[in-house]
Amino acid sequence: MLLAIQAVLRGKGGAMAALPGGFVGHCGYSTASSSQRLAGKVAVITGGASGIGRATAEEFVRNGAKVVLADVQDDLGRALAAALGADSASYTRCDVTDEAQVAKAVDLAMSRHDKLDIMLNNAGILGSLARPELGALDLADFDAVMRINVRGVMAGVKHAARVMAPRRSGSIICMASIAGVLGSGTPHPYSVSKAAVVGLVRAVAGEMARSGVRVNAISPNYIATPLVMRILQEWYPKATADECRRIVEEDINEMEGAVLEPEDVARAALYLASDEAKYVNGHNLIVDGGFTVGKVPNMPAPAA
Fold first, then answer.
1. Which pLDDT value is given to residue 14?
2. What ranges in the chain are assigned the alpha helix state H?
3. How confident is residue 15, by pLDDT bands cut at 50, 70 and 90?
4. DSSP SS3 for 40
5. 265: helix, strand or coil
C-alpha cells in the first residue's frame, strides 16, 4: 500500500525543510509469537501479494487463519500462497476496479471454507507523482486513483457485507493513510482517496453493527521499504540511500527508540480482525508513533 504525507525534516543543524511525501509497501515476517488469535477464521486480503498485504497475510496465517490472496501480481501472489501452504492460503487474480472480480474473491472464500470472517481492503495506488498546482490537476489521474482506492474499497465492503451480514459476524478492515488525516503533502488524488476511505468506514459502520459486523480503518505512517527508497531517491536525486532511510526512520519518526515496520501494521490488522476487538467499530486506528499529533505550530518564535 502506498502512502505519503507532508513532513518537516529536522537536519543536524536544526534547519527545517519540507518533504513532499513517502510511500509504504513491503514484504516482511513478524517476530511476534504465534498465539493462534485467528484460529479457524477465513480472510480475504486484496493487494495481498506484496507490501503490507503480504505482511498481514503472513501474520494472519501464523495466527491460525486461512487466507485468500487477491491481487493482480500473479507471480508474487502464487509464490506467496505456495510459501504459506496450500492448507492455509490460495491466490486469485483480482482487479478491484472490476466488481465482478471482487465478488469472485469473496465467493472463492465461501466455496472453499463456507464462510468469510475477515475482509482486508488493502489494494491501492498513489497515482502520478507529479504535484501540479490545483488549477492544473489531472482529473484523469484523480479518477484512476479514486477508482482503485475508494471504489475498489467500497466493492470489498459491499461483497464482504453480502456474506457476513447473514452470519451476523465479521470484521472488515480498510487500509487508509495518515495522508487522509492531515490532508496535504501527497498528490491531491491520493490524499482525497484516503480521507474518503475513512469516511466510508464511518458511513457504513453503524449499519453493519446491527448485523454484528465491524468495519474499521488503519492509517499508517511512512515505512522505509524499497519502494519508498526508490521514490525518495527519484525526488531527491542528490540524496544517498542512507540519507533517504534517515528521512523515513528519523526525521519523520516521532517515536523515540522505535521504527515503524510492515509487521506493526500487520499486527494492527490482526488486532482489529481478532475477537479482542469485538467492540471496536467505526474506528480509524492510526499507526504513526504520534506523527499526526506532533506538528510544530507554524508560528513566529516568541520574543526573547
1. 37
2. 51-62, 74-84, 99-113, 139-146, 152-164, 179-182, 188-209, 226-235, 241-246, 262-273
3. very low
4. coil
5. helix
Instruction: Reply yes or no on whether 190 is catalytic.
Output: yes
Q: What is the pLDDT of residues 134-173, one digit of tens each?
A: 999 999 999 999 999 999 999 999 999 999 999 999 999 9
What grid cell was written down for 76? Answer: 508474487
CA distance 38 to 118: 10
- Point out the catalytic residue in the list 29, 91, 190, 236: 190
User: What is the 3-class SS of 175-227, one letter each residue?
Assistant: ECCCHHHHCCCCCHHHHHHHHHHHHHHHHHHHHHHCCCEEEEEEEECCCCCHH
Provide the grid cell at 134. Answer: 490545483
Output the nine-digit C-alpha cell for 65.
487463519
User: pLDDT by residue (tens digit) across 188-205?
Assistant: 999 999 999 999 999 999
Q: Yes or no: say if 196 and 180 are a contact pair by the CB < 8 Å rule.
A: yes
Whether 247 contacts 232, CB under 8 Å: yes
Q: Which residue type does 267 have? A: R
Q: What is residue 25's predicted lDDT score, i.e. its pLDDT?
A: 39
